[in-house]
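Now read the record:
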Amino acid sequence: MEQKKYFFAVDLGATSGRTIVGCISDGRLDLEEVTRFPNNLIEQGGHYYWDILALYFEIIRGLKEVAKRGLEITSIGIDTWGVDFVCIGDDGAILRNPRAYRDPITFEAMDDYLQHVITRKEVYNITGIQFMHFNSLFQLYAMKSEGNTAFEHAKKILFMPDALSWMLTGKEVCEYTIASTSQLLDPRTKELDERLLASVGLKREMFGKMVQPGTVVGMITEEVQRLTGLGPVPVIAVAGHDTGSAVAAVPAKDRQFAYLSSGTWSLMGIETPEAIINEESYEKNFTNEGGVEGTTRFLKNICGMWLYERCRLEWQTLSGSSCSKEENGLSHAELQGSAMEVEAFRSIINPDDKVFAAPTSMIGAIQQYCRDTRQPVPETRAEICRCIFDSLALRYKQVFQWLQEFAPFRLDVLHIIGGGSLNKYLNQFTANATGATVLAGPQECTAIGNIMMQAQAAHLVDDIWQMRAIIANSTEMVKYEPQDEEIWNKAYNKYLNITKE
């Protein structure tokens, strides 16, 4: 009998992280969660930070648990959210905790950079990346402008998954998919652009060697082996950007599909062989991020479940109760179910309006937006949730229509993956709004994509289509067909009048 191979995935999101073990056998993938932990956004001194050492600690804790269970893992892979990075000093030590992309210092940096350094059109023509104030380019510019000590003394700059791989192995790399989120990379050359680096006072040698997903970074150090009880296990540079790993896990049968990676952020796009950089993609602010096997993820960021998550957190805080979320009406089932009992399309927002980026109160921001646009103000939990779900589905329709204009094929199927794929109401709304058949699942797509790239590095699978066939064989997808076309078209016209984008 063939010996089973186990792969260890570290999947870090902007609100939580987990470690997962995956095993492929008989054409199926089985997953087991090892640990789960919060990823806390830390506010101090007017700035937001990530605790990189806490994340490293959690990786070590997960590896210790694997060793304790006696599992012999084949490799380790790490994926994280995009754009953020770690500054390393001359002595090989981390210079401060890394800034988080929601840090307010970036709010004005983008406009200042594009006005005084390199124009918006030039930056887009080089990178094909959508303009978001927290992109690495503008974070670096903001740090340079403020005289940030960590920035000024950095010998190396490593993106988040690369920094954690470095902490495990001592080896520095710059993985392609995570680098592509930075707005520093040219998708044509597949390298960091020297002019953009120079514009923020950096040089190419300050970053690791560019590597593609599936590359071996190195073996875990003797220190990590001692801490965990493991042997010399290799760390693989998977698709380090969590969306890159997620899209690799879309269980599609062919190339004619769109995807919606639904979580804190919603990312809707298509997979293309080359970057799409033209006047229309520039005007609509679409992005070209790196995918596996040289593909491009042509997509647009949408605010996503951030709106819902922040409101839910506020309600939890306001309740001040030790009761469970189920007992105080804050479970997902309770909130989402109650939203279906109130009037549809009563209040509509643009989920991507800048007022929702990092408000002190998300509930207050939604209510104020409705006041400013002369709509009924949602007051109850049910009304606020319904406003969020209706608005997200209508925004999805808008972006889906734009994608159809760019795609060289007809988009009849939309794969919804990630944690948001469990929201059956929003899935049906999305089918209704877009007019496409929605296939929901898998939920753990990021970890699955991470593990499958490790399996490819171990020569268990040949290419992405074999990976996707295994994933489809291992996943129970839920189908949603469009309904109520006339009602949703009328609501969409209302959305366009309110948002005026």
User: Anything to note?
Assistant: Residues 231 and 490 are 61 Å apart (CA to CA). The chain has a mean pLDDT of 95. The chain has 19 helices and 21 strands.
